[in-house]
Amino acid sequence: MLNKKGAIGLSINTLVVVIISLVILGGGMAFLYKLIGGAEDIKTQIDQKTDQQLESLLVDQGQQVALPLHVVTIERGDNHVFGIGILNINPDLDAFNIEVSLSKLLDVNGKEISLTNSEKSVIVEESVLYNQELLTIKESEHHKDGILVSIPTDKPVGTYIFNAKIIDSNSDQYGNTQKFKVIAK
Prior knowledge:
Helices cover 38% and strands 35% of the residues. With 185 residues, it is of the alpha+beta class.
């Protein structure tokens, strides 16, 4: 009699472990699909919101570097994608890099918060995601890219002012520095 109870108990334990494993597998797959879907939403957001504005600034107005939307208000932990465009008008250049840096941080009263260069770099590393690879753009062609900004919840509330620069293959700045502000609540 005792042997049958042990066999039934072992069977039930095995069944419970299998059910828990399936639940964990299902949760992991749901998380993966949500993560992939979020990346697709970000790409769509870049294409739909900024493509026409960048096209107008680069092609119609002939700007070397363009960043159409300069100020956005977001909750800490949320994100926003800024679009940046590059028009190559120099026949001697075809390689460019995007560089983003934090210019300054203002508190809610508009007073500048003193930060060291290393603290500014940490904020950029934790808050900004952009293509850091070498971009090849032939003469008279243009390229559009996104800069994803997400201020972490552990960072202070305030206005984050970023600089976006384009560096050419000669290590010189190409075009004007583009400034954009993120007001984090």
